[in-house]
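User: Please fill in residues for this 312-position structure.
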C-alpha cells in the first residue's frame, strides 16, 4: 500500500487532467488513474474546433495528449490503470486498481466521464470519427451541405437534428415508433423544420462504407414489416442517450435516476465529505470539453480548500 495521498483523481478527460494541473500547482502531489479510455470521449472525436485557444482546430487525441503532458509537467503521477474498487466509508479513502495497486487518499476527485449509447452495430465503432458521431455540437460543422441521419426520438435527438440543419442540406430523423418521445416544444421545432424529414417506424440496422473508410449510407429496417432498404448518407448521429461511468459508486454517492453523480449546486462536492465529482459523470446538460475542464478546475480548488479546513 502506498503512502496516503492528498488527492487521487479517477479519469483522464478534460475534467481529470485539468483537476490534476490545478492540484499539482497547489502542491497537492496528485495521482491520476486514466481509466479504460485514457483521454475520455475526445479520443474518439476527430477535429475539435470549439475549444478556445486552438483557432485552427486540433485533433481530439492530440489535444488530450497535450493535457496529459501539461498535467505531468507540474508533477502529476499518472497511471494507465483503472479503479475497480473503492471504500469511501471512512478517511483516508481506499481505491484498488485493476493492476493490483491500492491507493489511500485524503480526498477523491471522480472524473470518470460518460459514454454515448450506441446501437451495437458491427461497423459503428469502426466508423467513429469517419461519419459516425454522438455529438452534433462537436462534429456538425464537418457536414456542410451533406445528408445526415439522426437516430432517436427524444429531446436530445430533436435538438441534435435541429442543430445539424445549420450545416447539413438534409437531416433525416430515424424514429423506431410512430411518435416522438420529445417534449411538445421540441417536437414542434423538429416537425416544423423544412430541412428535417422524420422516418417513422424505422431502425438503423447497418452503417455502410462501401470500402471508402467513411459513412456512405445506412440500412433501414421497418419495425413493423421488417422490410429493409439502403439509403445514401454522409453521416450518422446517435442521440439515444449517454451512460455516466459511475457504476463504481452506485449505492455510495447520491445520483439521479440516470446515474449522474449529484453535486452541491455551483460546486463539485458530493454527499460524501472529501469526495468531489467533475465533468460528464455529473453533467448531463452541457457535456462539452470546455465545461468539463472548468469543473475539473473547480474540483481541484475545492479539494485544496477542503484540506485546509481539515488542517491537512
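Assistant: Residues filled in for all 312 positions:
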Amino acid at each position: 500500500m502506498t503512502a496516503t495521498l492528498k488527492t487521487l483523481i479517477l479519469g483522464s478527460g478534460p475534467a481529470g487532467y485539468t483537476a490534476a494541473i490545478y492540484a499539482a500547482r497547489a502542491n497537492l502531489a496528485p495521482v491520476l488513474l486514466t481509466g479504460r479510455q485514457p483521454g475520455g470521449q475526445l479520443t474518439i472525436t476527430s477535429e475539435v474546433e470549439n475549444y478556445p485557444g486552438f483557432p485552427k482546430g486540433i485533433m481530439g487525441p492530440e489535444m488530450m495528449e497535450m493535457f496529459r503532458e501539461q498535467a505531468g509537467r507540474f508533477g502529476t503521477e499518472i497511471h494507465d490503470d483503472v479503479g475497480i474498487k473503492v471504500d469511501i466509508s471512512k478517511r483516508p479513502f481506499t481505491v484498488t486498481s485493476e493492476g493490483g495497486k491500492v491507493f489511500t487518499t485524503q480526498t477523491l476527485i471522480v472524473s470518470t466521464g460518460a459514454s454515448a449509447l450506441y446501437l451495437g452495430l458491427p461497423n459503428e465503432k469502426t466508423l467513429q470519427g469517419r461519419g459516425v458521431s454522438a455529438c452534433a455540437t462537436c462534429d456538425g460543422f464537418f457536414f456542410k451541405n451533406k445528408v445526415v441521419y439522426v437516430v432517436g426520438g427524444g429531446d436530445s435527438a430533436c435538438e441534435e437534428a435541429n442543430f445539424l440543419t445549420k450545416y447539413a442540406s438534409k437531416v433525416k430523423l430515424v424514429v423506431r415508433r410512430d411518435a416522438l418521445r420529445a417534449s411538445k416544444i421540441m417536437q414542434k421545432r423538429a416537425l416544423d423544420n423544412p430541412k428535417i424529414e422524420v422516418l417513422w417506424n424505422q431502425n438503423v440496422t447497418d452503417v455502410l462504407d462501401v470500402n471508402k473508410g467513411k459513412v456512405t449510407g445506412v440500412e433501414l429496417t421497418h419495425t413493423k414489416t421488417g422490410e429493409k432498404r439502403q439509403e445514401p448518407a454522409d453521416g450518422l448521429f446517435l442521440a439515444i442517450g449517454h451512460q455516466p461511468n459511475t457504476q463504481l459508486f452506485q449505492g455510495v454517492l447520491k445520483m439521479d435516476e440516470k446515474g449522474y453523480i449529484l453535486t452541491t449546486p455551483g460546486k463539485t462536492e458530493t454527499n460524501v465529505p472529501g469526495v468531489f465529482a467533475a465533468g460528464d459523470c455529473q453533467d448531463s446538460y452541457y457535456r462539452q470539453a470546455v465545461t468539463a475542464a472548468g469543473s475539473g478546475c473547480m474540483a481541484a480548488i475545492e479539494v485544496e480548500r477542503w484540506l485546509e479546513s481539515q488542517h491537512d
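For context: Residues 289-309 form the longest helix (21 residues).
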